[in-house]
């Protein structure tokens, strides 16, 4: 049976807030993983741009004694070359961790706000999101 309009609005806000929180947790987790995995690329490209005379031309000691324009260009190219495989590693790490934590199962449909008696979880069990415990390991996200 359908909920009355005020109850529907309240449940919509609760479910929207919960889905937004889960989205922010996913976004934060992705940001942390990508930052950690891509740190070598960030450092190499930063030093390449910092010491190149046509870009920033820093007066730091290591720029004058170790890195000239050719080596700075090599660092920039190396940084962009190693970026592609590191992005793949970061994405695989994020997807593996999100699947292990079952973060995608925490999103709730808005039909729970419209109709009474809806279940918080399409699967049996409970857990931190209402879906994690008792989850069948054979169930795939794309099924």
UniProtKB/TrEMBL annotation:
Q: Does the keyword section mention NAD?
A: no
Key words, A-Z: Membrane, Transmembrane, Transmembrane helix
Q: Where in the cell is it found?
A: Membrane
The annotated topology with respect to the bilayer is: Multi-pass membrane protein
Single GO MF annotation: PDZ domain binding
Transmembrane stretches, by residue range? 21-49, 74-95
Matching InterPro entries, A to Z?
A: TMEM88
According to the UniProt record, one GO cellular component term is: plasma membrane
Similarity comment: family membership: Belongs to the TMEM88 family.
Instruction: Specify the protein name.
Output: TMM88 protein
Native source species: Oxyruncus cristatus (sharpbill)
